[in-house]
Amino acid sequence: MPTAFLHIEKFEDGPVWTIGYLVYDTAPGEGIVIDVPMWSAEKIYRRVRELGISVKYIVATHGHWDHIGEMAKLKQLTGAAVCGNGADEWMMRDPNGMVIPPPEKIEPVEVKEVLSDGNELLFGRIRLKVIHTPGHSLGSICVYDEAAGVLFTGDTLFAGSIGRVDLPTGSMEEISKSIPDKIMTLPDEVKIYPGHGPDSTLGRERVENRFVQMMFAERG
Length: 220
Ligand SMILES: [Fe+2]
Description:
The mean pLDDT is about 95. The chain is of the alpha/beta class. It has a single domain (about 5-215), classed as Ribonuclease Z/Hydroxyacylglutathione hydrolase-like (Metallo-beta-lactamase, Chain A, 4-Layer Sandwich). The longest helix is centred in the last third of the chain and has 12 residues, at about 170-185. The chain has helices at about 40-50, 65-70, 70-80, 90-95, 170-185, 200-210, 210-215, and strands spanning about 5-15, 20-25, 30-35, 55-60, 80-85, 115, 120-125, 125-130, 140-145, 150-155, 155-160, 160, 190-195, 200. About 25% of the residues lie in helices and about 30% in strands. Fe (ii) ion binds near residues 64 and 155.
């Protein structure tokens, strides 16, 4: 249930259907972009110009190449500051050296502003809080708009599933703490926008997501 001034547009692109989000407020004309899939930068930039907004930040939910595919290009086009958690910075500096390499060469990107748990991103009339949710990778973050009841979950939590934990710095133990302790403690009404696949709500995931249920069941 987004508030009157929070606007969200999806850009699903790249070889593994990654979703980038343009999040903005029209009145002061400011926005941010959360993840930039391969082949999406020009499409996002075209929309930004159409809306006449300025992009303040480009946020990486984590460092995997499908989420930062054209981050360097969008940074060049918009002049926005690239933000992400420090623990995934090494992946963003060397996206082509990953265990599962990208199908096309990716331009590395440097993190200008390091985001830690509790940091806030302010743009327009919007305040987004950073929640550090290690597990899919050590530097995975979710971004939360408490006023609007909206959570961008990256590859940590999907509709009906969770992010894989078998890539470098991934940890089942960590994600099994991050999801119950840091995400599922938020209200059921919160709408989630993941890095892949359809949207959902936390209430729905509490009932339908077997991975989430397993995490709670294992705690007894
Ligand atoms: Fe990922």
